[in-house]
Amino acid sequence: MSAEVSLSGRADWLAEKHLQKLLAALKEGGEEARVAGGAVRNALIGQPVADIDIATTTVPEETIRRAEAVGFKTVPTGIEHGTVTVVAGGKPYEVTTLRADIETDGRRAKVIFGRDWKADAERRDFTINALYAEADGTVVDLVGGIADIEARRLRFIGDAEARIREDYLRILRFFRFFAWYGDGRPDAEGLKACARLKDGLARLSAERVWSELKKLLSAADPSRALLWMRQAGVLTAVLPESEKWGIDAIHGLVKAGKDLGWTTDPMLRLEAIVPPDAVRMKALGERLRLSNDEADRLRHWALTTVPDAKATETELAKKLYYGDRDGYLDRIRLALAAARTRAVEDNQAMMEAGGFSRLLNFTLKWEKPVFPIKGADLTELGASPGPKLGATLKNLEKEWVGSGFTLERGALLERAAQALEA
């Protein structure tokens, strides 16, 4: 235990009455319960805490009995692995019995329940994720996690290769947590182990791989982590599309986003490191099992061309009318970030950046205008339903767009009448 280290004054959430009530119930009769993992880590680092997990010596059935006895709802979300979700005061807490791995296959582990806090800590991945906190805020550190937090150092617990062989996802987690919490160079032994065992990533499900990649790309600045992933051959293993395209655009994109107040967008960052090839992006979406929305966004981005930085708003509006607005937004943002990066030593790029900034502001405000003529209007002029009516309507719409959306309904109807007579 690391004396004198406490969450007091750093974790208002710890004093929440329902959490304290749950911890007290789990500790009755000589049992123990502590907040574990990410909540403790983030509180010490000074970052927001989203989820609060609890580790306890009570077995799952006893956890359920005790939680329900004090009025909380329980859900056996992972009871075979010792995890019960307790809903206390409307907030879910994952409560897990202390465990030790008895068998692993690189994806999942068979566990036994125990009462040994050090054994429970040592089965976790990184030292900064194996910290516990008592109900009074006292931090329990059994693996040197506090020193690593202070040094912004990410280390596997014990032998890095052994930890990875237990679950190959830990290779991606190594780079993800480095992006979020690390500083300087990654731990040398951890980096070497990731490089040696990267072939094990092929054993993982696509959903787990994409989930980790997306979290990594959501970090404030993932550029250093991506660089080391590439150096270790890990990035190519999970994202081969990036191999010849490169990751050089990421740093400039991150800086532009920070300077211009853009929301952190992992999909935009993914687009920055893969080629705008619709066929390859379709394959990528299928391989990583992206959601329909994510796959559509990649496809639209790949099919959209970058507008000229000197284009007028009217010229862009015509493209937007027939194209995909989100695809153009992504293209313009990436082009703007690239121009800003070059503008440091290139006056031409500075002018381009100004042009893309203007087009971005226009696109953000743009709303697709409604074509003022319908098929019924042509029917009233004597047109019969069929291909000719459709072709006339399409030609009218093309004229309307070509005019910069200025042709009014009356003028369009006159043109329609003339077309139908002809």
UniProtKB/TrEMBL annotation:
Cofactors: Mg(2+)
Entry keyword annotation includes Isomerase: no
Keyword Magnesium: yes
Domain of life: Bacteria
tRNA nucleotidyltransferase/poly(A) polymerase RNA and SrmB- binding domain: residues covered: 190-242
Ranges where the Poly A polymerase head domain occurs: 33-155
UniProt keyword list: Magnesium, Metal-binding, Nucleotide-binding, Nucleotidyltransferase, RNA-binding, Transferase, tRNA processing
InterPro entries from the UniProt entry: Bact_CCA-adding_enz_type3_sf (IPR050264), NT_sf (IPR043519), PolA_pol_head_dom (IPR002646), PolyA_RNA-bd (IPR032828)
Record family assignment: Belongs to the tRNA nucleotidyltransferase/poly(A) polymerase family.
Name the record gives this protein: CCA tRNA nucleotidyltransferase
Organism of origin: Mesorhizobium humile
